[in-house]
Amino acid sequence: MLIRALALALSCVALGALPAAALTNPAVVAKGYKAPRDAWGHPDLAGVWSPATITRLERDPSLGERLVLSEAEARAAEGDTAANNAKASLPTDQKLKVDDVDCGVKGFSGVACGYNNFWVDPGTKIMRVGGEPRSSIVVSPKSGRMSMTPAALTSLRAQQTQVGNFDGPEKRPLAERCLVAFGSSSGPPMLPVLYNNHYAIVPGKDLMAIEVEMVHDTRLLRVGGTHNPSAMKTWMGDSVAHWDGETLVVDSTNFRPDQTFRGASADMKVSERFTRISDKQILYQFRVEDPKTFKEPVEGEVAWNLTTDRIYEYACHEGNYALPGILAGARAAERQGKEMEGNRGAVKEEGGQ
């Protein structure tokens, strides 16, 4: 076993530090494609890209370790999505009471119908990598599901039963306060959510930028730089990039404890790989390491597809009537000697998968 592991390690070095075994070799799916060069001679990643897909982040447990779906399964899933979209696009029955309205968006109904189907865009297709329809974004662990440590699960449950969710803005989710995007759209890792799934990449010699459509974020990647001191915790972490042949590799650390991936600790480290594998697609790969939270590293892959869509401003603060309304409602309830409904329940964040 030791000899085999050593041989594998040496072969990876010889091939130019390919991604971990669970991840796809970009050169294989690129099939000889060579990306155009930017002004600095590197693969040109410029453009607006969308990772929107109906492929889940974590795999349906019934699929076990099966990463690749059959074409029939993929067509069935896409057909179900099309049928649901057609149903959700029908006019709302004006005779229904507010509490009985199904707005057609998963997880939202009744008075919680902040959106109907017109406003969301989670995707309509199963994600394909190298032509293979995928059952999940997560490729490792082999189950396609993240395995958390007992301590992390205990901490997560404690957070979900926090008291005083409506005491002030600091108790509300970060995205509800327009600080960072919903789910893990801002990243890293950068993952598709309920809507606004566009990223604009702006290349540069020493600094690259990725504009995130959701909320208002822009990630800055220092090319060839070094990480800031560990005491400097920043939104979306501290990201340093370098080129590995055709792939842009980004290593991020120094995360704020209130903005991590799926309850991870501020000590998590995220590695991302951006490889343009065709004129119309980037293969985005990530690896999250945090022994305090995950029993083993989490690895995943997302196909980013080139689009002619434009990114318009997400004026989050200017249009955020909900946050002051929520807090005003809580104060009104307090004056009446009541407790806001759900005050001791989990805070539900929109936009996640």
Taking all Cα atoms into account, the compactness measure Rg is 22 Å
Portion in helices: 10-25%
Summing up helix and strand content along with how strands pair, one would put the structural category as alpha+beta
What number is the mean pLDDT? 87
User: Hey, roughly how much beta strand do the residues contain?
Assistant: 15-25%
* Secondary structure tally: strands: 12
In angstroms, what separates the terminal alpha carbons? Answer: 39 Å
What's the structural domain tally?
1
State the strand order across the main sheet: 1-5-6-7-8-9-10-11-12
Defining key terms:
353 residues; alpha+beta; nine-stranded mixed beta barrel; two-stranded antiparallel sheet; 5 helices; globular; disordered N terminus
Report on the structure:
- The two termini are 39 Å apart.
- It is built from five helices and twelve strands.
- The strands form two sheets. It has a nine-stranded mixed β-barrel.
- The protein is 17% helix and 20% strand.
- It has one domain (29-67, 121-335).
- The longest helix has 18 residues, at 71-88.
- The protein has 353 residues and is of the alpha+beta class.
Question: What is the fold's blueprint, element by element?
Answer:
Blueprint: H1 2-14, H2 26-30, E1 47-50, H3 71-88, E2 128-129, E3 132-133, E4 138-140, H4 150-160, E5 199-202, E6 207-212, E7 218-223, E8 238-244, E9 247-253, E10 269-278, E11 281-289, E12 298-306, H5 322-335
Parallel strand pairs: 7-8
Antiparallel strand pairs: 1-5, 1-12, 2-3, 4-12, 5-6, 6-7, 8-9, 9-10, 10-11, 11-12
